[in-house]
Amino acid sequence: MTLTYRWAGITDTGNTRTENQDSVYPEGSGEGSSGVVAVADGLGGHPGGDIAGKCAVDAVARAPEGCSGAELVGATHDAIMARIGEALGERPELIAMATTLTLAVLSPTEPIEIAHVGDSRVYLTNGTDIVQVTDDHTHGMDRVVAGELSREQAQQDPDWHAMSNWLGFES
To answer: What is the DSSP letter of 128?
Structure first.
């Protein structure tokens, strides 16, 4: 059986920021039996998040075709960090730029491979049900995953949404 995937990427500034720091690959929506889809979101409150997100998506777009998920992660991580380094060389005031990155390698015959850092989530749907596949890399969710707190308890913590993992400065 050959699977066909459908994807869509929608970006939004959100309720608290004035700048949209989201980047998606490929842009818009599509359908196919293989390929790579990705979303990056610059860390809000950090200057240059939009640039870091574009660096991440650009590295994914330029990755060699036919890579396994693990190969793609290795190749894109190094390329992302190099691109962010180049951007910092041009604009050192953006030293704190960082981004999330979530990507999926789609295959007609193999399981979907997902790489994820940050809080840009992956959901799967079969047209009826929607299932969240990834957990956010935030201090609150880290404590939930570790069994220290329930989700409800963690959501009361003022650091619930503070990122614990990202790409960019001190990642």
So the answer is: S
The structural domains of the chain, ordered by start, are 5-124 (3.60.40.10)
Whether 91 contacts 53, CB under 8 Å: no
pLDDT band at 54 (very low <50, low <70, confident <90, very high): very high
H or E stretch at 10: none
Q: What is the pTM of this model?
A: 0.86
Cβ partners under 8 Å of residue 16, min gap 6: 44
127: left (phi over 0), alpha (psi -120 to 50) or beta: left
b (16+ CB within 10 A) / e for 16-44: eeeeebbbbbbeeeeeeebbbbbbbbbbe
pLDDT of 34: 81
